[in-house]
Amino acid sequence: MVFEGNVSFANGEDRYRGDRVVYRESNGLISMEGNVLVRREGYEMQADTLFYDTKSGAAELEGEVRVTSETINVSSRKALIRGDGEMRFTGDVVFESSPYVGLADSMTVNGPQDSVLLEGVPYLSMEGGYIGGDRMVITLEEGARITSLVITGHGDLLWTGEEKTIHLQSHSLSLFFGGENRLDLILARRDVRGALETSESMNHFHGESMDVRFIGTEPEEILLTGEAGGSVTGLAAGGKEENHDGE
Is residue 64 a part of any domain in this protein? Predict the structure, then answer.
């Protein structure tokens, strides 16, 4: 069956609308084209085309894809929404959820929506910070609050407090957050390099592993291990540089 001209229909609590709809009763497949709009399970989905399997509940969206809810806003070139609620976005993925925004080649949100996988050199920008790497796994609570973030493959971090800024690079980074997405702890592993900057000095460091604990917004406790070393450079006029290397 073919329907044309601002077509709307419902499937249970779900609502669908498009310029052209084709329904294949034999296999339960629905294809939609033009100004596609879907309201489903708390999400509003927009796309140029949609393919929907009424038997499995899976939907595939293509074109200018946008998926929004109370906690997140995602745009991409393609999206696959599975019957169990898992969502996979591919192609120029941009995602926003206060207070962070990010980019990735692909993004997968699991069914319970408490874990997000980002791949393809993703990065995340938060208030006071930038985080990037080859692969990123975010653990969430209540749909948006980050509890932990694990980066593997060339992890890169810049975090600015009221008085100190930390620059950090390593093979893997694990970040743990408290209430209101407040950064509490950083665990950096393998080939750790970076710097801690204040208004008066720049402290460069390197080692095999590094733990950074925050008090409020500031990195206050730093532990370097494994052939650790570094240098201190005064930024004020007449400042001197000191080098310290050891295990």
Answer: no
Does residue 30 belong to any structural domain of this protein?
no
What number of H helices and E strands is found in the chain? 0, 19
Range(s) of the domain holding residue 163:
121-242
3-state secondary structure of 180: helix
Contact 176, 184 (CB under 8 A): yes
The answer to whether the beta carbons of residues 155 and 191 sit under 8 Å apart is no
Alpha-carbon separation of residue 33 from 13, 20, 51, 82, 129 (angstroms): 21, 5, 9, 20, 40
Q: What angle do CA 117, 119, 124 make, to 5 degrees?
A: 75
Q: Are 163 and 143 in contact (CB under 8 A)?
A: no
Q: Provide the β-strand partners of residue 37.
A: 17, 46
- Please state whether beta strands 165-177 and 201-215 pair in parallel, antiparallel, or not at all (unpaired): unpaired
Spatial contact of 193 and 170, defined as CB atoms under 8 Å apart: yes
Among candidates 83, 170, 95, 168, which has minimal Cα distance to 126? 95
Q: What is the pTM of this model?
A: 0.84
Asked if the structure places residue 94 within a domain, the reply is: no
pLDDT, tens digit, for every residue of 211-243?
999 988 888 888 888 877 777 565 443 444 444
Q: What is the 3-state secondary structure (H, E, C) of 147-164?
A: EEEEEEEEEEEEEECCCC
Return the C-alpha torsion angle 151, 231, 217, 69, nearest 10: -20
On whether residue 27 sits in a domain, the answer given is no
Look up the CATH number of the domain holding residue 205: 2.60.450.10
Average pLDDT score over the chain = 86
- For 127, which DSSP code? T
